[in-house]
Amino acid sequence: MPLKNIRKMTAAALAGAASLALGACASIPGANVAPGSPITAEEAQLGAENHEAFVQQFGGAMTGPYARYVDQVGSNIAVQSGLATRPDAFEVTLLNSSVNNAFAVPGGYVYATRQLVNLMNNEAELAAVLGHEVGHVAARHSARRQQAAQRNQLLGLLGAVLGSAVLNSPDLAQLSLQGSQLATLSYSRSQELEADQLGIQYLNRAGYDPTAMATLLASLAAQNQLDAQLQGRGDATIPEWASTHPDPASRVQNARQLAGNATGVVNRETFLSRIDGMIYGDDPEQGVIEGRQFIHPLLRFSFTAPQGFYMVNGTSAVTINGDQGRAQLTLAPYNNDLNAYVRGVFNALGGEQQQLNPRSIERTTVNGLPAAYGTATVSNGQQQVDVTVFAYEFDNDTAYHFSALTPAGQSGVFNTLYQSMRRISAQEAGDVTPRRIDVVTAGRGDTVRTMANRMAYDNGQEARFRVLNGLGSNEQLVPGRQYKIVIRAN
Hints:
alpha+beta
């Protein structure tokens, strides 16, 4: 949840998405273009017009050596697709996001998050994931998905993707999308396999080891499994790579078979030297999650999730997820009137086709903060649910609010969450230190355990170390080899 332009971010992203959706009603760029054909002027215009909205929505663009390296690798692998003949025809953006994610849009725009890059262990894996995304563009998969979305009378593919990203919760997103069939947004299995195949072709053409696609997918599947365990989720197949990508574990074996016996360079040492020092996990400028606590050192507030719930820090919202309900913290324009603010949030959640009215709006004070809240009961198409908005005034032009969705009659599950919101002191804010990647060389006496003990976490240290370095459950360290650990450093 970043500080810069936070008030404008959601509106700008959704406005850009809406323009894409409206434009798609008349003509979908790329829908009638043969797979593998060069980028058309119409596709290039579409990508350029919406690039900034995507960048803002997914954490902002990183700059400097990290970003230049990712752009270099991505542009070189993208040329192998035949979409363009020059590397500078592609714009590859490293996003400042703590979610494992990568995507590409028509027009030569490719994106990867720093968290996904940090999960990789060599340059060939970086080329693999970017090549996979370019493969989706080359095959015009997004255009075909938009056609499917139109047939199902969705809001519009990219608008729905951004809407679900803003809300970061399928149930809450469904309120804003008026019951859109979000499953349509996923690439089909055949499209994923085709993108894997194309990505492997690009790896071969560029001289990289094509098995990198399989090792990257295996690391991603292992990360999904670890995330589920750490968050107490039973379903570890839900990928964090993006809501648009099915479980990578199911594609590992196929990628291995596609790679065959071919070989190539991996550039492990070069890659590790280029990501050394990169922020890992949450950027303090966007707020950080520590266990069940969320703390934002710049905006100077904190809250704690209820027992049994886990949090995900998005670019414009923090989500709190559990079996008993989902909630999110974000903000909206505020004009020193909490009652009007709460009503405005309900109106935004309901949209144009569904009116959401709270039964009443109550006033209270939480840890010295003026607050207002209300609940409305609606049907989500399958059952009655309670929608609760709980807002806090931080000053005359700044308010934050939780929007929560629970089964009807169970809205109280988030009461401890609402009561935990508080301002933090300057000292508390100053104590927040980011985590970073630190590349170290294993000595003769080093073991997985000794390395893992240096990880800046108080739980799951060995599992985190193994997943971060692509190590199997029984794999041991090689003396003299470089590995990644996560430390705290400004």
